[in-house]
Write a structure and sequence with these properties.
There is one protein chain. By secondary structure, this protein is an alpha+beta fold. 30% of the residues lie in helices and 25% in strands. A hairpin with a 7-residue loop joins strand 4 and strand 5. It is globular.
Length: 462
């Protein structure tokens, strides 16, 4: 008999009276001397289905072996439920135990574990309702991301995870090597990278953007989506050493086009979550964040506020608000400044543009004033910056001057400069930190709780 998933049963896709086979893990078992009620969940949906086992039909020892965490296959008749909370249940005819879970040692026997404790058993936490919900939403958001770009004629470009350049200067990088670290070859006291696999210093990427630009200058519209790495010793609720980035790059887009796409993109994803993940969102809303669903709806119902960095500084300075970090023109805005603009002043998402060039990357297009660049950051409630992007500098002479001013060796970036030498064109793009976006969608407060196996300082266990 073919397995039927719990989701299909609870959504009415199978008629009452049919014999069904379900397979999954026991969430709870209760009962009396006559009957056992076993809640089975297979991960297809937040809800479990109740299995009713009349004990007269089953071996007593078999039922005793069933406990929370055990894996079962249950064959039985789908019947209308007499209890509250579910429309159907299964009247068991046969129960097969695939794997037991010793109640004395299985760490998820009881409810109410803290998220901190569950991070210590990341290999088991997907079996909880919380992380089942989070990871189903994560899947839906990744699927929606690909769907959004595909519907708009973008091509998915796979950019390298291993790179020989840190030209972007986006953060400390992890080194990749095949050399014996106990016997590193050296020439005149310096590491001899000629002996290494790639013949030069190589690292895990911090961004696929620069390679993405190369693709956009041939395919017009591309996007990247993959893991990126930062070797920063940051133990905060907002930092991971390994995380996923989505970075679209578009030829012939200028800053306004970039902002329009970013706003459309974010609204599309949030609307998709509301339409396809409501059971999971309702669970997270009820348990962790009572304002989650209302906050998601508020994002898709309004036009994002757009203003310049200079205008934002003026608002912050006149706010009368006491900030931990001082606000002056030329400083990089902190999360507290961004959230003030979004949550208190405008009470909706904000897109800031035209940042001082001295605090932004070399590849951002310099404005006519010579002081600012065509950068854009999208700011969201609770999160602050959720997207960062810009119109890219397509003028070869200006780009080379920016690189010189910022100490970026031109010889390492010859391939990037070639796109400005041969058929240059206006282009733009942005980056979305996928986990940071998931914090917003799920209402979770720690970024380690929206990725299956978090990589953080001193933590690569699983």
């Amino acid at each position: 008999m073919k397995q039927i998933f719990v989701k299909n049963l609870l959504q009415g896709e199978v008629s009452v009276g049919e014999t069904v086979l379900v397979k999954g893990w026991v969430r709870t078992k209760r009962g009396n001397k006559n009957v056992a009620f076993i809640a089975i969940n297979d991960g297809s949906i937040i809800h479990s289905i109740q299995v009713v086992a009349d004990l007269v039909n089953f071996d007593e020892e078999l039922i005793k072996r069933i406990s929370t965490g055990a894996c079962l296959a249950v064959t039985g008749e789908l019947v209308a439920s007499m209890g509250q909370g579910q429309s159907v249940e299964i009247q068991a005819k046969d129960i097969h135990i695939y794997g037991e879970a010793d109640p004395e040692t299985f760490p998820l026997q009881k409810k109410g574990h803290t998220l901190e404790f569950l991070r210590e058993i990341a290999h088991l936490r997907p079996r909880t309702n919380t992380f089942g919900a989070v990871f189903r939403i994560r899947h839906e958001m990744a699927y929606a991301l690909h769907t959004f770009y595909h519907e708009r004629g973008f091509f998915y470009l796979h950019t390298p995870i291993i790179t020989a350049s840190d030209a972007e200067g986006a953060g400390q990088m992890f080194q990749v090597t095949t050399m014996d670290l106990n016997n590193v070859p050296k020439v005149e006291g310096e590491v001899d990278y000629n002996a290494d696999f790639f013949g030069k210093s190589a690292h895990l990427t911090v961004s696929g953007q620069l390679e993405g630009e190369l693709g956009a200058m041939a395919l017009s519209k591309i996007y990247t989506f993959g893991p990126t790495f930062r070797a920063e010793n940051s133990n905060t609720p907002r930092h991971l050493a390994e995380f996923w980035m989505n970075e679209p790059e578009m030829a012939f887009y200028e800053i306004q086009d970039n902002m329009d796409l970013a706003e459309e993109f974010l609204k599309y994803l949030v609307k998709w979550a509301l339409e396809h993940c409501m059971d999971d969102l309702q669970f997270l809303n009820d348990l962790y964040d009572k304002e989650l669903i209302d906050r998601l709806k508020s994002v898709i119902d309004v036009k994002f506020e757009r203003l310049t960095y200079t205008e934002a500084i003026d608002i912050l300075q006149k706010s009368g608000q006491k900030f931990e970090f001082k606000v002056d023109w030329g400083v990089d805005l902190q999360s507290e400044h961004e959230r003030y603009l979004v949550e208190k002043h405008f009470k909706k998402p904000v897109i800031l543009t035209d940042y001082p060039k001295d605090i932004k990357a070399f590849y951002m297009k310099v404005n006519d004033d010579g002081k600012t660049v065509r950068a854009m950051d999208v700011l969201f409630p609770r999160i602050g910056e959720i997207i960062g992007g810009s119109q890219r500098e397509e003028r070869l002479d200006v780009l080379k001057k920016r690189m010189e001013d910022m100490g970026i060796p031109e010889k390492e970036m010859w391939w990037y400069l070639d796109t400005r030498r041969f058929g240059t064109a206006p282009h733009a793009g942005f980056g979305l930190g996928f986990e940071r976006f998931l914090l917003f969608v799920t209402g979770m407060s720690n970024i380690r709780d929206v990725i299956p196996f978090p990589r953080t300082p001193m933590n690569a266990e699983f």
